[in-house]
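Lecture 7, part B: from sequences to assemblies.

Below are the input chains for today's worked example.
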Amino acid sequence: MPGGRTGGRGAAATKRFEASEEATQREEEQEDDGDEDLRDGGVPFFVNRGGLPIDEPTWERMWRHVAKIHPEGETVAQRIRGATDLPKIPIPSVPALQPSTPIPERLEAIQRYIKELQYNHTGTQFFEIKKSRPLTGLMDLAKEMTKEALPIKCLEAVILGIYLTNNMPTLERFPISFKTHFSGNYFRHIVLGVNFGGRYGALGISRREELMYKAPTFRTLSELIFNYEEAYHRCWHVLKKVKLGHCVSHDPHSVEQIEWKHSILDVEKLGREDFRKELERHARDMRLKIGKGTGPPSPTKDRKKDVSSPQRGQSSPHRHNSRGERRLSGEKKPAESKAMPDLNGYQIRV
Amino acid sequence: MEPGGGRKEKPKPKEPVSRLEKAKQKSAQQELKQRQRAEIYALNRVMTELEQQQFDAFCKQMQASGE
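Predicted structure of the full complex, as structure tokens:
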């Protein structure tokens, strides 16, 4: 539905809607630049942009940040910095998987490797990921991640997952981004969706065990996403948006960009059934693309001309659909989140 | 070559010195990276424990308040 705006709205309401759309557009653009990483559910964190070894200003900033957020303050740094008895952490070996090993087992091995790097709780992200970089550049970064072997966060795990599965041509990979709400803040998370033999699963890393790896056992994309939604619900997060990318090329030297948001789905506004339908539509789009053998779609301007999925441009009707008034009659609006106990402002981050 | 035919000993070429310097720098960088990695993982362990404690405490509070 072009515009997604009904005739019943007053001018003021329309203006608010437009302002909201612009704000959301800016937010989406910021996400492309990676600026959203500077806040993780309201808690600031930093990105190391100077490579490795970490330069002094970034290193000091990391420790200052830790002193601010840890109850023991500077004692943490005093205990660790310069200590002579720090344990030696072995560098995990990249899984050397035989082509004869079944794909699900290979995925498990890759996930174990990712977990072994550990989720990065330090407050400083060590590898800078620019989502707009060509795939070849991101694969070089992934290689560096395996060499340097440092704790990572969710986006880094997605890049790593792509790198480690490039040699599995029968496995399709596509990014899945989540935006959730908890206790007054928005949280963003991303995993690498996989599709093998018609079964869906995911690779990734998260603070929460249930929000990362999923074995490729889900019969539909909807089932996979609903599984994540339930997992979010169990840690009191409300799922607001899901963004689904298209399949990523297996060519590590490809200069194409990853398409991070082929479909943008507003969970609340769509309503349950439409949400499911849109997920399946995305799944169908992916199958069509694979079937055509055209690989991942070309950049946005060409995608708008794509007849098979006419509603997939960034400012396409689909996107407005996802925000328009498409809730089915009888659908209840999700309950407002209850006030959470105040644990010194603790936020359940994912 | 100097006029008059006498050969002066050529000065040592700069390249090997530069190569040595680069090797030293690389080694120092590698050591720094290893040191940083050890401290990062030690820090990550502390911060992971903190996160887990806070999460567990929060979950208990939620259960106690009978969500």
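Note for the exam: DSSP finds eleven helices and ten strands in chain A. Keep this in mind when comparing with the next example.
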